[in-house]
């Protein structure tokens, strides 16, 4: 949790060792560091701490800071808290006799320098305590980084009256954040949020209440972090008020630090000094107790943004949008949520409230504010109805025969399990897009159960795991595989004729990874040439996996083996693999005719015949993956970029089995979803079971794209007239009997109207929001091939936009 999300290149530590060998940490005036990967830090004598430029890989900037150099994550303990830090590559810091440390950009412009000292600097020193010290000729300390805390304090550092710690924006963004800690001169330690621009005053969410107004002769006057790692407040009388736990472990064995985290929690951490492998910082103490309820600010000023719901995990706030709401800024998990629908007052007069709105039911959600009306007495049904009929109402809470109506923005939402209340979250049945015709869609039993399941889940576990696509795929494949097969590791490679390549061989085959064929979700694909059998050389595609979650060779082999066991006309064949040190590469058949994406969305439209063949081929390939192969699997990422075309323009599915192989983690999953927006089935966004029906959904979207030769989500200009989202537009046209509009100018298709109609209907069946309404791939395949009849599909009825 506390681990910073960046890593230093090896170079720094290697170089630093050299520095260490050369001096004892004492730095002469004139010493300079330059912001680049190598040679950019000064180590403390023990090597525990380093001062210098930490490379932030995300944006290739360098943070002038002090960090724990022996911890692989290079946890930052201090940084120059200035808007110009981090700095660009090529910036420098120099130790100057008159001005101390001076930070300059590559053009020589001064960005920051030490201030608050008098005298002349004789030398600098990176202390093993994590304190960077400037000393004069008499070895008197004239400046120390401990006097200018950023967000962290370390043992031997003290807070005096007026001392402040400022939080960062996020764990990896060092811009100043919303929270600060201040030691007030009345002896209280407080945590506050910077006032939002719109409001006047800062909100206080923690106060140590340690000042004693009745006894001003004995005030608290210091916050001490002593050398053995104990954090306490000290009174004039030498009495102490302990903050951190007393029985902390020995400071010679553990690092300690206390940090005002970016989420507003002041947290006391420890980390073993001598650790093996991937040890992390442990939280030993934190204030406030419960930031979700203690930070009770102005709308939007809580621990989470407006309309968001806060829950505590390990003393830390976790923010989630309620059902029907999504993040305003998808990258800011702690930001505000927006409803996915428009709440319009009095716009659509012809329709009754019941036609326009419905509610989801949840329990345990609590918004202490945003009430605008209380109805008492009121039954639950009465409460729900009152909210439905009131255009201002966003949420109604029914409890103890009373009803509270709340309007947007909802602030300080949180989980409260002891209130025994019923919460009605109002949503619009008219989808996001105003032109969506799914008015009052079918009210099936399934739908009701779905809502119920979701409500229960909303109330309890707070849908923390919404987006664990990879993990889910992984789980399901495991289940599938357990049922189906057992591997015998030793002879498996033989069984499947998979060839194990050495890294050297593949480097040679690809001419040192010269020609890039494409970049996928899992890594870069290079073109190569190798002799798979003794006699003939063939072209291959070599995929270099960019992450290696499963480093165990055995497991990697087992996964690769299950991929290698697949053999189908419509799947790309795996020929071999390489697992050497950190390298993981897969060698596939080379597909000369590119991806379906480039075929469909290129300049010339492929023939209707070819398109129907391709669609049928993909369906067959998926039937095989889902049901027929020896270790069935869910693909999880069906999209035109993952369908390749062989010499004969047969569709060949690629990238199957990789979700499991790589055990994708959460952040990767998020980007995956973003990248593949539109193909992702709605159940990914809920905590419901993930089944092979997710592939059916993606196939449905893909099928509609094949029919119309356009992308699911089109640029806004193209989408004029309300057809920017393909699935919505297709449903529109289907309902209004205007299928011609979908394939304008494509005379081949217009002459094959019956098939067009059938394919569109199959596509709509596949994109049903309710997975149980979607057919299996086998049935889809049969429908496409005309083996079974296709009946008129119901409205896909999106609750929220599927883009
Ligand atoms: C390092 O810090 C410790 C504790 O503040 C201090 O006693 C020691 O003198 C410092 N070392 C140097 C070389 O300044
Ligand atoms: C260093 O110490 C000497 C002798 O105690 C004193 O004369 C001089 O002013 C001191 N220099 C500084 C910069 O404090
Ligand atoms: C850090 O956050 C600030 C404020 O939100 C933003 O302006 C800035 O672009 C962010 N920096 C990075 C590197 O993301
Ligand atoms: C800020 O606090 C002061 C004193 O508590 C109060 O008088 C003032 O109205 C507050 N300002 C706002 C904008 O809330
Ligand atoms: C104030 O604190 C001092 C030191 O702890 C104590 O001796 C004295 O009795 C206290 N006075 C009152 C009025 O509590
Ligand atoms: C640090 O403080 C704790 C209690 O607050 C005390 O037990 C310990 O002896 C102190 N360590 C030192 C080196 O003063
Ligand atoms: C508090 O402790 C310091 C250092 O141990 C000592 O100099 C001072 O006299 C003590 N003060 C009181 C009131 O006991
Ligand atoms: C670290 O732990 C290992 C094994 O427990 C021990 O051999 C080694 O001496 C320890 N190193 C230090 C610096 O404590
Ligand atoms: C390293 O992390 C993995 C996964 O989180 C865990 O299974 C393993 O036990 C950890 N190793 C050590 C030495 O802590
Ligand atoms: C329920 O309401 C009644 C009357 O309004 C009140 O007396 C009672 O304390 C309330 N119970 C709870 C649990 O709030
Ligand atoms: C809400 O309505 C406004 C105006 O009627 C429109 O501009 C906006 O796009 C709508 N937003 C959504 C999410 O439908
Ligand atoms: C498709 O593949 C065949 C066989 O390799 C090749 O002759 C043809 O040029 C390819 N077509 C395109 C458009 O690349």
From TrEMBL:
One of its GO terms (molecular function) is ATP binding. GO terms for cellular component: membrane. The keyword Kinase applies. Residues 24-147 form the Bulb-type lectin domain. One of its GO terms (biological process) is recognition of pollen. It comes from the Eukaryota. Residues 1-21 form the signal peptide. Pfam families: Pkinase, S_locus_glycop. It is found in: Membrane. PROSITE patterns: BULB_LECTIN, PROTEIN_KINASE_ATP, PROTEIN_KINASE_DOM, PROTEIN_KINASE_ST. Residues 511-785 form the Protein kinase domain. It is a single-pass type I membrane protein. Its EC number is 2.7.11.1. Its main location: membrane. ATP binds at residue 543. Keywords: ATP-binding, Disulfide bond, EGF-like domain, Glycoprotein, Kinase, Lectin, Membrane, Nucleotide-binding, Receptor, Serine/threonine-protein kinase, Signal, Transferase, Transmembrane, Transmembrane helix. It catalyses: L-threonyl-[protein] + ATP = O-phospho-L-threonyl-[protein] + ADP + H(+); L-seryl-[protein] + ATP = O-phospho-L-seryl-[protein] + ADP + H(+). This is non-specific serine/threonine protein kinase. The lineage of its organism: Eukaryota, Viridiplantae, Streptophyta, Embryophyta, Tracheophyta.
